[in-house]
Prior knowledge:
By secondary structure, the chain is of the alpha/beta class. The chain has one domain: Response regulator (Rossmann fold, 3-Layer(aba) Sandwich). 42% of the residues lie in helices and 14% in strands. The protein has helices at residues 14-25, 49-57, 74-77, 86-95, 99-103, 128-150, and strands spanning 2-8, 31-37, 80-83, 105-107. Helix 1 crosses helix 6 and helix 2 (49-57) crosses helix 6 (128-150). It is globular and about 40 Å long. 40% of the residues are buried.
Amino acid sequence: MTRILMVCLGNICRSPLAHGIMQSKLPEDHFYVDSAGTAAYHVGNKPDRRSIAVAKKHGLDISTQTARQFTVADFDTFDYIYAMDSSNYEDIIRLARNNSDIEKVMLFLEANTFIQNKNMPDPYYGEKDGFEYVYNLVHETCDILIKTIND
């Protein structure tokens, strides 16, 4: 089974959307998808209501997800670790124990050649349309990543 982890700062906006979208696109008998945050701000909380709403608008239910913090053990559990921005990437890399850990970590948008800025915008302090933009960008990028994972 291939195990994929999506990581953002608080695990309530970007990574829950990426978790839900990627999970919806892959067969669950061959893939396990989860999400985490580099900070412990929202541990135990559901995703942001705006993330839940935009996912629901597109036919996905992410309301049962619960925020958790990224741990060193995640390097052992997951094959692919996708960071939503360079700050989260650096936070994850600082916890790496060796090159094998580092090789599992990638910027989520790195594979999306249509996007110049490889940092996924954080819609938390913005308006509702920011969540729609992030949803669409994640949806598009998940399709690209699935091709690289399956190669």
